[in-house]
Amino acid sequence: MRLLTLLALCCLMTMGMEAQIKTPAPSPMCKMTQTVGLSDFTVEYSRPGVKGRTIFASDGLVPYGEMWRTGANASTKVKFSDDVTIDGKDVPAGNYALYTIPNADSWEVMLYKNTSHWGTPGKAFKEDEIQVKLSAKPKSMANTVETFTIKFANITSNKCDMVIAWENTQVSFPISVDVDTRVMNNIQKVMGGVSRGDYYTAARYFYDNDKDSQQALTWVKKANEMDAKFWQLRLQSEIEAKMGNYTTAIKTAEKSKAAAFNADNQDYIRINEKNISKWKGMIGSKS
Fold first, then answer.
1. Taking 60 as the threshold, does the pLDDT of residue 2 lie above it?
2. Do residues 256 and 240 lie in contact, with contact meaning Cβ atoms separated by under 8 Å?
3. How far is CA 110 from each of CA 43, 130, 150, rounded to the nearest angstrom?
4. What pLDDT does 232 receive?
5. Strands 139-153 and 159-176
6. 154 compared with 11, residue with greater pLDDT
7. Alpha-helix residue ranges (DSSP H) falling in the chain
8. Residue 40: is its pLDDT beyond 60?
9. Which residues lie below 8 Å from residue 98, measured CB to CB, with a gap of 6+?
10. How far is 179 from 157, CA to CA, in rounded Å?
């Protein structure tokens, strides 16, 4: 009896030791977050390698016409911190599984509400769990992507492309977010007790996004009335020039240049000199 007990203990100890051994995963996990405007887009997935195999084909590792977990191991997860728009359809903030059905000339891409499945849903698949479905055209690449990759590209303040690439195939689709409404609401909220920085930030946003130039000018002037900084004066001069007031813009740019000189900021000195020269040319072309 004692011998059996000792043997059992030895087996348990051996199993415990084996469980402590870690080896590299064949398809390592990746989790990355990309900020788009004011929102965070996160993707979590496993990254298999080509390893000399044929990937996308009728008889490939990922057969045409079959649902794919878009990676390896557990299904790929996508998370949006805010509501987004994909293929013209509204997608609420939250977590989704990313499934695809590759074909030679078109891929079906879908975001699935149920993220609990290890791979694809299989027989448990439900149409009403699809949040959004779209078609994407695959592109053939000259270079080979050895390790399966999902990334965000062509990023602006309110949109980006999600790119799926492996072997010699790439698929992408656009994702957009309504950042403008959030910024405008925020501007309206803070304008009751506004700091110099708030006035400047609001003016900068209006200028960068081609909104009401007169309103932008009013705000940046208020910022400069509080404390004239060389970067604020530069913005004021550029707004004035945008409105066609080149003579006024030159005077403001001269003030910005002088303030930049006092701050020993060579970049802003050069920027103002370049703007002054350009705007003098604009005045000359009008006369």
1. no
2. no
3. 14, 7, 15
4. 97
5. antiparallel
6. 154
7. 2-19, 179-190, 196-208, 213-226, 230-242, 246-262, 266-286
8. yes
9. 43, 45, 70, 75, 76, 77, 78, 109, 110, 111, 112, 150
10. 7
| pLDDT tens sequence across 235-279 | 999 999 999 999 999 999 999 999 999 999 999 999 999 999 999
The number of CA neighbours under 13 Å toward the Cβ of 241 is 21
* Residue 163, phi then psi, degrees to nearest 5: -115, 130
pLDDT greater than 70 at residue 67: yes
Using DSSP, state whether 283 is helix, strand or coil.
helix
Q: Are 213 and 235 in contact (CB under 8 A)?
A: no
Cα separation, 153 vs 148, whole angstroms: 16
Q: Which of 215, 276, 271 is nearest to 243 (CA)?
A: 215
Question: Can you spell out the DSSP letters for 170-191?
Answer: EEEEEEE--HHHHHHHHHHHHT
If pLDDT is split at 50, 70 and 90, which confidence band does 188 have? Answer: confident
Tokens of 44: 């979590």
Q: Please, which residues bridge with residue 86 across strands? A: 89, 175
Q: Which domains does the chain have, with CATH numbers?
A: 24-176 (no CATH), 179-286 (1.25.40.10)
Backbone φ and ψ for 61, nearest 5 degrees, come out as: -60, -35
Looking at this protein, which amino acid is placed at residue 173? F
Give the bridge partners for 176, in sequence order: 85, 159
Look-up of token digits 């303040």: 157
